Amino acid sequence: MTSSIPAKSKVLPPGIFCPVISLYKDTPRQEVDYDASYKFFQHLIRGGADGLVLAGTTAEAVLLSPFERQELLRTARRAAVDLGFDNYPLVAGISGQSANESLRLAEEARDAGADLGLLLPPCYWAKAATKEAILDFYREVADSKIIPIIIYSFPGICNGVDMSSDLISTLAEHPNIVGTKLTCGNAGKVTRLTKEYSHGQFGVYAGASDWLIPCLSGDGSGCITGVANVFPKTVAKLWSLWKSEQYREAIKLQGLIAQAERACKEGIAPTKFATAYYVGPAVGLTNAPAFWPRKPYQPSSKATGEGLQLGWVVDVMDLLVEIENSLPDVVGSGAKGN
User: Fold this and answer.
1) CA distances from 271 to 50, 95, 309 (A)
2) Who's near 213: CB < 8 A, 6+ residues apart?
């Protein structure tokens, strides 16, 4: 490591983190179902997720009210505490298009029990999102010291606004900016950042599990992956295989997980359909509309019984069913920290 900055006072542990889907009631307004969410949170914690991400992209954050965001955080905290994990890591999406909005979201997340905030760059006016504007934005939110900040790089939902490793490295020097989620999929950023910073200085996470091993081989800290909604034990197993130096087995499992990740990358609807199909019955959530996206966005046609257009999701993910079902409940490092 080349940076001499001190370790940050609060960082996300290394490991596997699940950006949790939102579950809704079967009502015209699709109110958030907090009872169903509680059951699902506990399933993920027992399944080995090292922490949960609430109000992120996979949670349809832009469709949630401020109250719903906070209540989901409170519900997740209660789910963890009821399992005996008082200090279980919770990350909250706090992305706004202005510093003012992001500061408000950060305050609300902190007050509801979040440990860290996940923050996209401003992107509504993409041409105005210059390097200087992005640096000022992150620094202003981080300077408030409301909550430690994780930089969220996802050009696909940010009008193509990308952040170079040089820009991220500059922000990593800030004492309240503690890591990054790279949904941009750029493995080069991982190696450039980990060359400069240790995990304690600045954690670097893949934004998907289909390149978890490339991230870990570049000395990255883990991943934040939607696949963990469906197969948390399997993704946790991949992590443990790599960390125990069982590289051949890890590479084989990585290939299977990469196929499942392909389905999740198609959008929210396939991810929620797969979660309903594979996880719903196991946790007592068998009402299909609980897993539909919030209107106006549409569920998969297979989930509504109108066709088989999402049959390929089942074909891909069936490869992991036997593995997931063969694994015992595990406790991730986030829970072990209690």
Assistant:
1) 20, 22, 14
2) 238, 242, 250, 251, 254
The structural domains of the chain, ordered by start, are 15-325 (3.20.20.70)
User: DSSP letter at 87?
Assistant: T
d(CA 159, CA 313): 27
Among the options 39, 127, 131, 181, which is catalytic?
Answer: 181
CA dist., res. 287 & res. 291, Å (int): 8
Determine contact, residues 183/154, Cβ cutoff 8 Å.
yes
Q: Are 163 and 124 in contact (CB under 8 A)?
A: no
- 155: three-class secondary structure by DSSP: helix
Q: Are the CB atoms for 70 and 107 separated by under 8 Å?
A: no
Could you tell me the pTM of the whole model? 0.94
Beta carbons of 92 and 85 less than 8 angstroms apart: no
Neighbours of 63 (CB within 10 A): 16
Other C-beta atoms lying within 10 Å of the C-beta of residue 328: 8
Would you call 145 a catalytic residue per the annotation?
no
- Residue 26 near residue 290 (C-beta atoms within 8 A): yes
Cα gap 93→91, rounded to integer Å: 7
Q: Is the pLDDT at 302 greater than 60, yes or no?
A: no
User: Cβ(271)–Cβ(58) under 8 Å?
Assistant: yes
Long-range contacts of 157-162 (CB under 8 A, 24+ apart): 157/57, 157/120, 158/120, 158/121, 158/123, 158/126, 159/123, 159/124, 159/126, 159/129, 160/126, 161/121, 161/122, 161/123, 161/126, 161/129, 161/134
| Model confidence pLDDT, tens digit, residues 172-210 | 999 999 999 999 999 999 999 999 999 999 999 999 999
Instruction: Classify residue 330 as exposed, middle or buried by CB count within 10 Å of its CB (0-12, 13-18, 19+).
Output: middle
